[in-house]
Amino acid sequence: MAAKPEAPLSIIGRRQPRLDGFEKVSGRSEFTDDIRLPGMLHGKVLRSTQAHARILRIDTSRAEALPGVKAVVTNRDAPTLMFSEHQPVLAADRVRYIGEEIAAVAAIDLLTAEEALDLIEVEYESLPAVTTIRQALKSGSAPMHERAPDNIGPTMEKDWGDPDQGFAESDLVIEDEFRTPMQHNTLAELHVALADFSNPAKLHMYTPTQGAPLYQMELAKAFCLAESQVRIVYRNIGGAFTGRGRPKPHHFIAALLSRKAGKPVKIKATADEEFIMFRASGETFYKFRTGVTRDGVIKALEADITFDAGGHDEWAMILWLPSVYLNWLYKPVGVRYRGRFVFTNTVPKGSHHGGIMGRMSAGWQQHINHVAEAIGMDPAELQLKNAVDPGYASPDGSVFASCGLQDCIRTVVERSDWKNKYGKLPKYRGIGIGIGAQASGSKGADNDTSAAMVKVADDGIVTLYTGIPDMGQGSHTVMCMIAAEVLGTQPEDIRVVQGDSDITPFDWGAFSQRGTFTTGNAVKAACEDARDQLAAIAAAELDTPAGELVFRDGRVFAAASPEQSLSFGEVAAKTLHSAEGRFVMGRGFFNSPKPFGALAFSFGAQVAEVEVDPVTGAVALLKVWAAHDIGRVINQLAVEGQIDGQVFSGMSQVLYEECRVEDGLILNPSRLEYKLPRAYELPDVDYTLIETIDPYGPFGAKEVGEGPIVVSMSAVAAAVQNAVGAMVPEIPMTPWRVLRMLRGTADGSTSVDKHWSEGLEAPLSDTKS
Amino acid sequence: MNTVAKRQVMSLTVNGDTYEVLVSPRQTLLDVIRGPIGLRGTKEGCATGTCGVCTINNEQGEALLSCLTPALEWDGKSVTTVEGLEADGELAPIQQAFVEFGAVQCGFCTPGVIMSAQGLLNSFHKPSEDDINDGMAGVLCRCTGHIKVKDAIRDVVKKRA
Asked: Which fold has domain A36-127+192-268?
């Protein structure tokens, strides 16, 4: 697909308020919990109170006898119903984490369901539990799975290019270690599933989701149904942040209860249950090694990462995601990645906003700054010198057809007055630069496709059928803008039909930052198809070749004679009511020609300035300067909103968020004790958008959904590092940790220079050999 | 069938309309507004008073966490929910500003954020930056980082005579 010059754009690039804004601000928007199906029951899940135990006996008889209870299920009801290869939906004879699903109840109301849970008796035989990476790797620790006698789960080892050669060419090799804790993404809308499996030939699943296909596939497989027998329905979605990528155990349990009771069953998380159901990011240890020459050429990059997988390895992508990321910023001779999962008796892990890379970057950026310091170079200069540029082919096979990274760095350096601040700020002030890249729709499956359909009514109103969920990111408004641009109408004249897998065409969904790029291309193609159908009639009416017609501002005319025109509505009416009675129905789809990885990448740089309180250790984030290359900007207002939200989430992860875990129990499962920034803690954000026009993106657009957070986390961490004068070896950088850092750097003690792998009998760099 | 304490009839005025409802002592204002009254614009977030998503306004127009308020204590009183801000088919200024400034993303917290903002605007004619920060500290928005929320509030304040 070659870059084609586009006519001047009339819609794309606007500050377009959300088209569903009226419904959302007036209380008219329906979310899953607002749906009431006739005869609906309420489900509750009985969860393990033990981190590791054998289940000796489950007695549900008293719960079953409670009036109002309509179904009770345990593993005996569905011994072959699997959540993943080694993991039944309901625990059979062993539990491996606190909160593991053991039984469930459906009753006429929530109070009855809760009462019934209390009547279920479970007899456990406790087993020794390992609840941290360190415990799990100690030789002699009880294995959690027979298939992993040393508690090491899946591993990945990969070299790109020649890292040994790169290290050999380096004058200096710098090493650092870093740790991120268990962190959980507090979604506004807690997890909820409403299943109607009253008819065993069709499962209706109402649930917020990032994409129907994975839910459909996994539920169909588990219940031995064809995919057409599973219908996924979603309305508005209260955020996702990687947390709704695939079905979770409660979806299967709601379906199972509904099948048994013959009624719809809703399961909704409570505030503390949400910390189990979400599948957060687990504790992670990182070792970074970088080889550099004296004059600042980065030659080799290495990362070795140990992930706490929890009780089961549910989300294998965690292993792979950071590995490719190492290839996207600099131009080393080689890259080396080692990653491994370690099983612990904690809740299975998923991902956090920023998709592993954000958390990693909070350490990696500090490590790169350490490299810069070691060779006496300004970190902004080091990164600019090594930054990838347009046309660069990275060792992992990614090609950056459009790339504005260097411009992003130059922009934030200039706008933040970096050169007058770096190294020159008063004590306890710090400034840091972070950079990052993100794939626009990284392809992980052959059917990573988006399809779209449009129909045109005889008044010119267009209906767009799409399977891309809008979890708040504003995709539907963006799709309407793309459609309106192609058809020469207004975004308000496009109606979106979405949220029902029985109706909408296939769309892999809203993850891997693929909405604008992949679905956007599909919507553009569908609208072009519809436009061609309309152009056939308009060409005859205007006595002009169809190829010379322009659709713009609600009119259709020949480029050479704009004074003679038809309205879009007239063309639609004439087409629909022509002698042939043509129904205008456009279809389009997009599937990247690349078998693996992404076609387009966004880039960004941010500078953050912080002030550390030397008495309390509290960090105030004063200001963020952000510059992002996201290709063509489709909706300026939405883009700023995406950057804002990622600055918020990035500072939150770097400065505040941490699940305090003791013996496998999360001690702070609440939104007060699990600290998030409140309105008064947010900095001013200065935005610059570097518009590279990507040859593959719709109108040249790329993603903005998860690129900025990686950059924010890097910049905030770097700024704190600069303020305290040393690499902060873990997040969150809480007041207590910052105080310890300040004291450690003041008296020269090494107590803060912690090495996470120290004392582990199985060294972190050794995988199963 | 649960065996909790006896239900009582109570009267609650929501957005100017009075409803007679049968309520158990365990039910909160949020349960009653979303349940028997059926106004589901107000959302249930954490249901433990930590996220502010369920915020409504009391008779004095102040922000109130409906998930922590036992319904029966509100017998005979009146509240305003997000559905009650429109007048003559027009959105309230704060609602319009939320749309215009992009202060809405996923929209789940939006009713609570708007009712917090409205509570602030009811209490202060010209709230200062500190008043805004204090007034919005009780509600969490995961998507917007509150940045454009504050822009929207400032705009409403600016336009006040």
From this structure: Aldehyde Oxidoreductase; domain 3 (3.90.1170)
Task: Please name which of B127, B150, B86 lies closest in space to residue A25, comparing C-alpha atoms.
Answer: B86
Closest CA to A73 of A230, A260, A223: A260
Q: Using an 8 Å Cβ cutoff, are A534 and A575 in contact?
A: yes
Q: Closest chain A residue to B110 measured between Cα atoms?
A: A25
Catalytic site residue A115?
A: no
Q: How far, in Å, are A3, A605, B68 from residue A691 at the CA level? A: 15, 14, 48
Quick: pLDDT tens for B59-117: 999 999 999 999 999 999 999 999 999 999 899 999 999 999 999 999 999 999 999 99
Domain boundaries, chain A: 21-30+444-591, 36-127+192-268, 284-440+598-747
Query: What is the CATH topology of the domain spanning A21-30+444-591?
Result: Aldehyde Oxidoreductase; domain 4 (3.30.365)
Distance from the A741 Cα atom to the nearest Cα atom in chain B, whole angstroms: 28
- Choose, out of A25, A183, A654, A685, the residue to mutate when testing the contact with B (most B CBs < 10 Å): A25
Q: Determine the distance in angstroms separating the CA of B32 from the nearest CA of chain A, rounded to an integer.
A: 14
Task: Please spell the DSSP secondary structure of A107-137, one letter per residue.
Answer: ESSHHHHHHHHHT-EEEEEE-----SHHHHH
The tens digit of pLDDT for each residue in A639-695 reads 999 999 999 999 999 999 999 999 999 999 999 899 999 889 999 999 999 999 999
ipTM of the complex: 0.97
Q: Which fold has domain A284-440+598-747?
A: Aldehyde Oxidoreductase; domain 4 (3.30.365)
- Residues in chain B, overall count: 161
